[in-house]
Amino acid sequence: MLRQVDLSVELSKPAYKERMAKLQLTLGELQREARTLNIPIMLVFEGWDAAGKGTMINKLLMALDPRGFNVYSTNAPTEEERLRPFLWRFWIRVPARGRLAIFDRSWYGRVLGDRVDQKLPPSEWQRAYEEINAFERQMADDECVIVKFFLHIGKAEQKKRFKKLLKNPSTVWKVTSDDWRNHKQYRAYEKAVDDMIERTHTPWAAWTVVEAEDERFAAAKIFAAAISALQKKIAQVKAGKRASWKTLPRRHFTLSPPKSIDLSASLTKEEYEDQIEGLQKRFRDLEHRLYMYRVPLIVAYEGWDAAGKGGNIKRLVSRLDPRGYEVIPIAAPNDVEKSRHYLWRFWTHVPKAGHIAIFDRTWYGRVMVERVEGLCRPDEWQRAYNEINDMEAQFVDSGAVVVKFWLEIDKDVQLERFNERKNNPYKMWKITDEDWRNRKKWDLYRKAIDDMIRLTGTKRAPWTVIEANSKYYARIKTLRTVIAAVEKRLKEYE
After folding, report:
1. Over 80: is that where the pLDDT of 248 sits?
2. This prediction's pTM
3. In terms of CB atoms within 10 Å, which end of the chain has fewer, N or C?
4. Quick one: how many helices (H) and strands (E) in the chain?
5. In this structure, which CATH number among 3.40.50.720, 3.10.129.10, 3.40.190.10, 3.40.50.300 belongs to the domain 269-490?
């Protein structure tokens, strides 16, 4: 593809001045309008070394309100970033609604530099295409405008620019041994770029290849592409229409069928006390081994109101080193969280390799509470099943152990526990009007829960339904389940 691009195109200085004056004014107006309409924007810059990415980004910034954007320069991952899934450092930087994020290099490093330099096995960079397409699709479905640029120059032009930079004492630092090594691998990178564009050029995140040997032509083309994308989205939003994409092949998930449960399962207090301490000590030992082998653990708790999630979590972590785990309570999203994709607030809590994150309620709120209470549109909760499966697959593919619990109780037990809380001055704070309202919608929640378990119980991240009418039984089963999952993963390292 790149070899078919005509790099001889130019734009005269007078034509450039006339055209850019209009383009700069238009882009500034569109940025302000997008902010008013709460449209998030992501501009992605990839390209050859010395192709002029920094120069082009700077030209864009001069036309924009500096209070409305952030620029992120993507270098080799830091230690903090290496210890998390590779998309984590981009998820935490997705723009809020009405803001603009500019990425000087991006999530495409995995299928370009890492691929050509053989820093990853082929299976990993091949899988990265699926993860990238899923990420961009999720952003676009959330009404984000994504414009991707690849700045293209020829091999001879690149060498010429390197030499020019080396002649100037102020810019000699810009040309490194890595740049020259990449230059020698120009053809290998060219093949990787062609592959990248072919496999990630989508209706929701299209590539614009920019002929960048003439700076004026490149700048005008970049401005025009950004303006066109923004005008299209703004017109769509004003018309009250939502993005509609043809469905492309998505990652296939093998579902794990739900198992039948027996809510009469129970343990006596004596049976419980005979087992709990030994299991807690065993889990504490596993915590140390998780850290030693740098394996992250994500434990997700969902369940009926009064099913015993809090007490269950307390027994799970009671003997752990507090420096190695975090319990994340999930309530209704605040204004900052509402201003971004609904999964953003969960990505920000992804644990480092070797650490444990325990979510007291999770990302499944979208397909339960938000679905039943009408807090999101039907198309939003319907696509969330795939989005959640994609996210959990990325966690597992990055090395994490993912354990998901649904704590099941029957309606009579829930009522009994509600009344106990209502009549106990030490537990009154646990019962709210919302709990009683939710109980009246038991059948609606039952349907949502069954759909959730059926559609997101994958082989990689299966659900474990906990019979929680007996709190003793539930606590023992969750401990045993976590221990079994961790030990299974650690066998791969030992």
Report:
1. no
2. 0.93
3. C
4. 20, 10
5. 3.40.50.300
